Amino acid sequence: MKITVLAGGVGGSRFLLGVRSAYPDADITAIVNVGDDMWHVGVRIAPDLDTIMYTLAGQNNTSRGWGRVGESERVAGELRAYGVGWPWFTLGDLDLGTHLARTHYLRSGLPLSQVVPLLTSRWDLGVTLLPSTDSEVETHVRVEGGSMHFQEWWTRHRASLPALAFDFVGVSSAVPAPGVVAALAEADVVLLAPSNPVVSIGAILAIPGLADAVRATSAPVVGVSPIIAGAVVRGMADACLTAIGVSTSADAVALHYGARSAEGVLDGWLVDTADDAAVAPVASAGITARAVPLWLSDDATRAQVARDAVELALAL
Amino acid sequence: MKITVLAGGVGGSRFLLGVRSAYPDADITAIVNVGDDMWHVGVRIAPDLDTIMYTLAGQNNTSRGWGRVGESERVAGELRAYGVGWPWFTLGDLDLGTHLARTHYLRSGLPLSQVVPLLTSRWDLGVTLLPSTDSEVETHVRVEGGSMHFQEWWTRHRASLPALAFDFVGVSSAVPAPGVVAALAEADVVLLAPSNPVVSIGAILAIPGLADAVRATSAPVVGVSPIIAGAVVRGMADACLTAIGVSTSADAVALHYGARSAEGVLDGWLVDTADDAAVAPVASAGITARAVPLWLSDDATRAQVARDAVELALAL
């Protein structure tokens, strides 16, 4: 079975752990958001790709929620002493190894989609990672009086500055990375991870041709709600949803994605049992919804959510 | 008093310690070789500038002879795990902080000569560092069957592959960095540090216009022999001298530099007392030579060599 997952960082990586655990023999491909990527102190940062790589490799820092386990900050101390970089954005030493390796390959002329397998081959991830695009499309946040990289808005300001809009800078000339359209076309099941609907899944779907490829696949497309009981499971996705006029609820996000039958991307939608009331309005929009426990708290619950998503897809 | 010193890395930094110690009130400028510089795993390495900066800052690793004291290699371990970079060329974590800061500024569009003061301002060096040029002029070594960056020949092969020639790649279109010609023109004394005559001082003098500026200054120009008793004090400069047909002796190096009166760059030349016999042949070429103890073994001897060089210059 070929399972293709659209994924952001933290939510995406936890969901992928569940898919890998539930379907160890499946051919699993993740199409990963690159909108959070940026050049910083001369190296290319790719937060979502790295979070997923580290998590699937068992190398992620589970207590902190980002970066590598056993991390140190020797280089970051020097950068601070030189007054270079953002004081609120610390690059760990182990993490910098990844950034330098990526930068080395990018500077040698390879596109990101060829760099990713050179980095992931170090571990047995059990999931093929594809960047959504090889182009440098960066998510910027428009706020009162200006605009900033998503990373600054998210990490420095903790999403506290009211966002007026999100710009995917450079998106109009971007195309899906090699393998992305095929991974959707050849899939038996396409899943949307419970990632940020605006700056993760939204940034993926904003790549010209990518949403069309989701709509064109013969595979069923099922999404997993990142909203449980009217609140975001993690992160500050509510601030992002508010900015684009979508309320923080499981049904509002499904309606935002829309039914494939009506130029959207979803055939099915999983909501948490706490959001049972969302099933009917979602269904009336042409999306088959089902309420199941959605908390990805351990391996067993993550695998069960993945099974529920795939089984809903195969039942459509 | 304005003292301008042409300097490579290790020999240059030890000599500069002596100049600073002997003349704490002088305005000391070092014109530093950049021929060993290179792009490596996406960052710009500048070994001679960094060796001098670390040494003058008291941050150098004196037992190892290169890099920072208290260094660690967390990032390098990751690069090895990714199979990126040269396994025989280890980048320390603290050192990488410098490389990343430099790369950050270079990628933002600043020329190296503007980047250097942004890095050195962190410490009170007592010496102004100027790169010989802002251009990326790299020393490559021609060997039987090919060519390689100087760093590979020097560090990986320990200068054991017979060098046929040294190419300063890109030198023809290079110009001295801003401030270099003025530092020579306005100097009261110009000194050549006991650095490698071929790939350090030679690479500096190869920048078009730079040797002319040395010849044009009204200041006396005195060099310090890097050869003592027919042997190199450190490093493998003999392999470099052999490649350009210069024998490893204090007089041969002086004659290679040549007298200013005969299109060379020297007015005076310090040799070690062990090389007393070199004084006459050097003098007959129009260069005033003097034999003094040249071992830069501690602060007192380093300062004495600097005083001997300056006093010879002022006596000319």
What would your notes on this structure say?
- The structure is a homodimer of 316-residue chains.
- By secondary structure, chain A is an alpha/beta fold.
- Chain A has a domain at 2-40 and 47-58 and 123-135 and 171-315: Rossmann fold.
- Chain A is 38% helix and 19% strand.
- The first copy, chain A, contains 13 helices and 14 strands.
- Chain A has helices spanning 10-22, 47-56, 74-82, 93-107, 112-120, 150-156, 180-185, 201-205, 210-216, 237-243, 250-257, 279-284, 299-315; strands at 2-7, 27-32, 38-40, 43-45, 128-131, 138-143, 146-149, 163-169, 189-192, 221-224, 227-228, 231-232, 268-272, 288-292.
- In chain A, the strands form 4 sheets. The first copy, chain A, has a 7-stranded parallel β-sheet, sandwiched between helices. In chain A, strands 7-6-8 form a 3-stranded antiparallel β-sheet. In chain A, strands 3-4 form a two-stranded antiparallel sheet.
- In chain A, strand 13, helix 12 and strand 14 form a beta-alpha-beta unit.
- In chain A, helix 1 (10-22) packs parallel to helix 2.
- The longest helix of chain A has 17 residues, at 299-315.
- The two termini of chain A are 16 Å apart.
- The mean pLDDT of chain A is 95.
Question: Could you list some keywords that capture this structure?
Answer:
homodimer; 316 residues; alpha/beta; Rossmann fold; 3-stranded antiparallel β-sheet; 13 helices
